[in-house]
Amino acid sequence: MFCWTIIACSPQTKVDLIVYHAQVYTVDSTFSTAQAFAIQDGKFIAIGSDDEILRKYKAKEKIDAEGKAIYPGFYDAHAHLFDEAELMDQVDLNGADSFEEVIQRVKNYRQKNPDKTWLIGGGWDQNRWKDKAFPTKDLLDKAFPDIPVYLMRVDYHAAVANSKALEWAKLTSIPSIHGGVVGGTNNIPNGLLIDNAMDLVNKTIPVPDEKEYLRMIKRTQDFTFRRSHLNC
Protein backbone atom coordinates (compact mmCIF):
# COMPACT_ATOMS: atom_id res chain seq x y z
CA MET A 1 0.00 0.00 0.00
CA PHE A 2 1.38 3.36 -1.00
CA CYS A 3 0.80 6.65 0.82
CA TRP A 4 0.82 9.82 -1.23
CA THR A 5 1.85 13.09 0.35
CA ILE A 6 0.39 16.10 -1.37
CA ILE A 7 2.30 19.35 -0.88
CA ALA A 8 0.21 22.42 -1.47
CA CYS A 9 2.19 25.26 -3.03
CA SER A 10 1.12 28.68 -1.84
CA PRO A 11 0.73 31.18 -4.67
CA GLN A 12 3.47 33.81 -4.82
CA THR A 13 2.58 37.38 -3.98
CA LYS A 14 3.16 39.84 -6.77
CA VAL A 15 5.39 42.81 -5.94
CA ASP A 16 7.09 45.58 -7.89
CA LEU A 17 10.69 44.76 -7.02
CA ILE A 18 12.82 42.06 -5.44
CA VAL A 19 16.44 42.66 -4.51
CA TYR A 20 18.41 39.55 -3.62
CA HIS A 21 21.96 38.26 -3.14
CA ALA A 22 22.73 41.32 -1.01
CA GLN A 23 24.17 42.21 2.37
CA VAL A 24 21.22 44.17 3.74
CA TYR A 25 21.83 46.14 6.93
CA THR A 26 18.43 46.57 8.54
CA VAL A 27 19.58 48.78 11.44
CA ASP A 28 16.85 47.29 13.60
CA SER A 29 17.17 46.89 17.38
CA THR A 30 19.62 43.99 16.98
CA PHE A 31 21.39 45.35 13.87
CA SER A 32 20.51 42.18 12.00
CA THR A 33 21.38 41.59 8.36
CA ALA A 34 19.44 39.92 5.55
CA GLN A 35 19.95 38.85 1.97
CA ALA A 36 16.86 40.06 0.17
CA PHE A 37 13.75 42.21 0.32
CA ALA A 38 10.52 42.84 -1.55
CA ILE A 39 9.04 46.23 -2.39
CA GLN A 40 5.50 47.14 -3.37
CA ASP A 41 4.23 50.67 -4.05
CA GLY A 42 7.51 52.11 -2.83
CA LYS A 43 7.36 50.33 0.52
CA PHE A 44 9.36 47.46 2.00
CA ILE A 45 6.85 44.66 2.61
CA ALA A 46 9.26 41.84 3.47
CA ILE A 47 12.90 41.26 4.25
CA GLY A 48 14.70 37.96 4.77
CA SER A 49 16.88 35.33 3.14
CA ASP A 50 17.12 34.84 -0.62
CA ASP A 51 15.14 31.61 -0.32
CA GLU A 52 12.34 33.18 1.73
CA ILE A 53 11.83 36.20 -0.48
CA LEU A 54 12.17 34.43 -3.83
CA ARG A 55 9.86 31.64 -2.70
CA LYS A 56 7.10 33.89 -1.36
CA TYR A 57 7.20 36.70 -3.93
CA LYS A 58 7.47 37.27 -7.64
CA ALA A 59 8.27 40.64 -9.12
CA LYS A 60 8.11 42.65 -12.29
CA GLU A 61 11.76 43.49 -11.69
CA LYS A 62 14.53 41.60 -9.92
CA ILE A 63 17.95 42.94 -9.04
CA ASP A 64 20.90 40.75 -8.22
CA ALA A 65 22.96 42.89 -5.83
CA GLU A 66 25.99 40.65 -6.38
CA GLY A 67 26.72 40.48 -2.68
CA LYS A 68 27.02 44.25 -2.25
CA ALA A 69 25.98 46.11 0.90
CA ILE A 70 22.64 47.91 1.07
CA TYR A 71 21.93 50.44 3.81
CA PRO A 72 18.82 52.37 4.85
CA GLY A 73 18.60 55.92 3.54
CA PHE A 74 20.82 58.27 5.48
CA TYR A 75 19.51 61.63 6.64
CA ASP A 76 22.02 64.09 8.03
CA ALA A 77 20.30 67.30 9.08
CA HIS A 78 23.65 69.10 9.12
CA ALA A 79 24.80 68.15 5.64
CA HIS A 80 23.82 71.51 4.06
CA LEU A 81 23.21 69.80 0.73
CA PHE A 82 21.53 72.85 -0.80
CA ASP A 83 24.38 75.08 0.36
CA GLU A 84 26.89 72.65 -1.11
CA ALA A 85 24.96 72.62 -4.38
CA GLU A 86 25.05 76.41 -4.53
CA LEU A 87 28.76 76.51 -3.63
CA MET A 88 29.61 74.12 -6.46
CA ASP A 89 27.94 76.55 -8.84
CA GLN A 90 29.99 79.50 -7.55
CA VAL A 91 33.60 80.72 -7.61
CA ASP A 92 35.79 78.80 -5.18
CA LEU A 93 37.97 81.40 -3.44
CA ASN A 94 39.39 79.17 -0.71
CA GLY A 95 43.15 79.46 -0.35
CA ALA A 96 43.51 82.66 -2.40
CA ASP A 97 46.66 84.47 -1.20
CA SER A 98 45.62 87.96 -2.27
CA PHE A 99 42.60 89.93 -3.41
CA GLU A 100 44.21 90.09 -6.85
CA GLU A 101 44.12 86.29 -6.95
CA VAL A 102 40.46 86.42 -5.90
CA ILE A 103 39.71 88.71 -8.85
CA GLN A 104 41.63 86.49 -11.26
CA ARG A 105 39.65 83.44 -10.14
CA VAL A 106 36.41 85.34 -10.73
CA LYS A 107 37.64 86.32 -14.21
CA ASN A 108 38.44 82.68 -14.98
CA TYR A 109 35.01 81.64 -13.75
CA ARG A 110 33.31 84.23 -15.93
CA GLN A 111 35.14 82.98 -19.02
CA LYS A 112 33.85 79.48 -18.34
CA ASN A 113 30.34 80.68 -17.47
CA PRO A 114 29.56 83.55 -19.88
CA ASP A 115 25.80 83.22 -19.38
CA LYS A 116 25.86 84.02 -15.66
CA THR A 117 24.03 87.24 -14.79
CA TRP A 118 25.70 87.42 -11.36
CA LEU A 119 29.21 86.40 -10.32
CA ILE A 120 29.01 84.83 -6.88
CA GLY A 121 31.80 83.23 -4.90
CA GLY A 122 32.95 82.37 -1.43
CA GLY A 123 35.94 81.36 0.65
CA TRP A 124 38.26 84.39 0.67
CA ASP A 125 40.18 85.10 3.88
CA GLN A 126 42.01 88.40 4.21
CA ASN A 127 44.14 86.91 6.99
CA ARG A 128 46.02 85.00 4.28
CA TRP A 129 46.89 88.23 2.49
CA LYS A 130 49.99 90.34 2.99
CA ASP A 131 48.18 93.48 4.17
CA LYS A 132 45.37 91.62 6.07
CA ALA A 133 42.92 94.39 5.11
CA PHE A 134 39.29 93.69 4.32
CA PRO A 135 38.58 94.14 0.59
CA THR A 136 36.38 96.85 -0.87
CA LYS A 137 34.63 97.30 -4.19
CA ASP A 138 37.34 99.41 -5.88
CA LEU A 139 39.28 96.63 -7.59
CA LEU A 140 36.07 94.72 -8.30
CA ASP A 141 34.61 97.74 -10.09
CA LYS A 142 37.69 98.02 -12.32
CA ALA A 143 37.57 94.32 -13.21
CA PHE A 144 33.78 93.95 -13.43
CA PRO A 145 32.09 97.26 -14.24
CA ASP A 146 29.17 95.67 -16.10
CA ILE A 147 28.01 92.72 -13.96
CA PRO A 148 27.04 92.30 -10.26
CA VAL A 149 29.68 90.56 -8.14
CA TYR A 150 29.11 89.23 -4.62
CA LEU A 151 31.93 87.40 -2.81
CA MET A 152 31.55 85.89 0.67
CA ARG A 153 34.28 85.45 3.27
CA VAL A 154 35.36 81.95 4.30
CA ASP A 155 33.24 82.09 7.48
CA TYR A 156 30.25 83.65 5.67
CA HIS A 157 30.12 86.47 8.21
CA ALA A 158 31.24 89.05 5.66
CA ALA A 159 31.04 89.72 1.95
CA VAL A 160 32.29 92.23 -0.58
CA ALA A 161 30.10 93.47 -3.44
CA ASN A 162 30.89 95.66 -6.42
CA SER A 163 28.99 98.79 -7.41
CA LYS A 164 26.71 96.91 -9.80
CA ALA A 165 25.58 94.62 -6.98
CA LEU A 166 25.05 97.58 -4.65
CA GLU A 167 23.09 99.31 -7.40
CA TRP A 168 20.94 96.19 -7.82
CA ALA A 169 20.23 96.28 -4.08
CA LYS A 170 19.60 100.07 -4.18
CA LEU A 171 22.27 100.46 -1.51
CA THR A 172 23.40 104.04 -2.14
CA SER A 173 24.02 105.09 1.46
CA ILE A 174 25.11 103.53 4.74
CA PRO A 175 22.06 102.43 6.76
CA SER A 176 22.07 101.41 10.39
CA ILE A 177 21.77 97.61 10.50
CA HIS A 178 21.02 95.72 13.70
CA GLY A 179 23.63 93.00 14.00
CA GLY A 180 25.56 94.11 10.95
CA VAL A 181 27.78 96.75 9.39
CA VAL A 182 27.88 98.37 5.96
CA GLY A 183 31.44 99.55 5.35
CA GLY A 184 32.21 102.95 3.88
CA THR A 185 32.93 106.61 4.53
CA ASN A 186 30.96 109.85 4.15
CA ASN A 187 27.77 107.78 3.96
CA ILE A 188 29.01 106.04 0.79
CA PRO A 189 29.20 102.22 0.92
CA ASN A 190 32.58 100.74 0.01
CA GLY A 191 31.20 97.28 -0.78
CA LEU A 192 32.09 95.57 2.51
CA LEU A 193 29.12 93.95 4.24
CA ILE A 194 29.35 92.29 7.64
CA ASP A 195 26.87 89.82 9.18
CA ASN A 196 23.24 90.98 8.85
CA ALA A 197 24.25 93.68 6.35
CA MET A 198 24.97 90.90 3.86
CA ASP A 199 21.22 90.33 3.48
CA LEU A 200 20.83 93.75 1.87
CA VAL A 201 22.51 92.40 -1.27
CA ASN A 202 22.05 88.68 -0.82
CA LYS A 203 18.25 88.91 -0.87
CA THR A 204 18.33 90.60 -4.28
CA ILE A 205 20.33 87.86 -6.00
CA PRO A 206 18.07 85.93 -8.42
CA VAL A 207 17.04 82.52 -7.10
CA PRO A 208 17.49 79.51 -9.43
CA ASP A 209 14.29 77.97 -10.71
CA GLU A 210 13.28 74.40 -9.83
CA LYS A 211 14.87 72.88 -12.94
CA GLU A 212 18.18 74.62 -12.21
CA TYR A 213 18.11 73.58 -8.54
CA LEU A 214 17.52 69.96 -9.53
CA ARG A 215 20.51 70.12 -11.86
CA MET A 216 22.67 71.55 -9.07
CA ILE A 217 21.48 68.98 -6.51
CA LYS A 218 22.05 66.10 -8.95
CA ARG A 219 25.59 67.25 -9.64
CA THR A 220 26.34 67.61 -5.93
CA GLN A 221 24.90 64.16 -5.25
CA ASP A 222 27.06 62.59 -7.96
CA PHE A 223 30.16 64.38 -6.68
CA THR A 224 29.45 63.24 -3.10
CA PHE A 225 29.01 59.63 -4.19
CA ARG A 226 32.26 59.71 -6.18
CA ARG A 227 34.14 61.22 -3.24
CA SER A 228 32.69 58.64 -0.84
CA HIS A 229 33.69 55.83 -3.21
CA LEU A 230 37.25 57.13 -3.46
CA ASN A 231 37.53 57.32 0.34
CA CYS A 232 36.34 53.74 0.89
Describe, in plain words, how this protein is organized in 3D:
- The chain has two domains: 13-70, Urease, subunit C, domain 1; 81-202, Diaminopimelate Epimerase, Chain A, domain 1 (Roll), CATH 3.10.310.
- Helices cover 29% and strands 28% of the residues.
- It has helices at residues 50-56, 81-88, 99-112, 137-143, 163-168, 199-202, 210-231, and strands at 13-20, 23-25, 33-34, 36-40, 43-48, 57-64, 69-70, 91-92, 119-124, 149-153, 158-161, 180-185, 188-195.
- Strands 8-9-10-11-13-12 form a six-stranded mixed β-sheet. Strands 5-4-1-6 form a four-stranded mixed β-sheet, with helices on one face. A three-stranded mixed β-sheet has the order 3-2-7, with no helix packed on it.
Q: What's the topology here?
A:
Elements: E1 13-20, E2 23-25, E3 33-34, E4 36-40, E5 43-48, H1 50-56, E6 57-64, E7 69-70, H2 81-88, E8 91-92, H3 99-112, E9 119-124, H4 137-143, E10 149-153, E11 158-161, H5 163-168, E12 180-185, E13 188-195, H6 199-202, H7 210-231
Parallel strand pairs: 1-6, 2-7, 8-9, 9-10
Antiparallel strand pairs: 1-4, 2-3, 4-5, 10-11, 11-13, 12-13
Helix pairs in contact: 2-7
Q: Can you give me a brief rundown of this structure?
A:
This protein is 29% helix and 28% strand. It is of the alpha/beta class and 232 residues long.
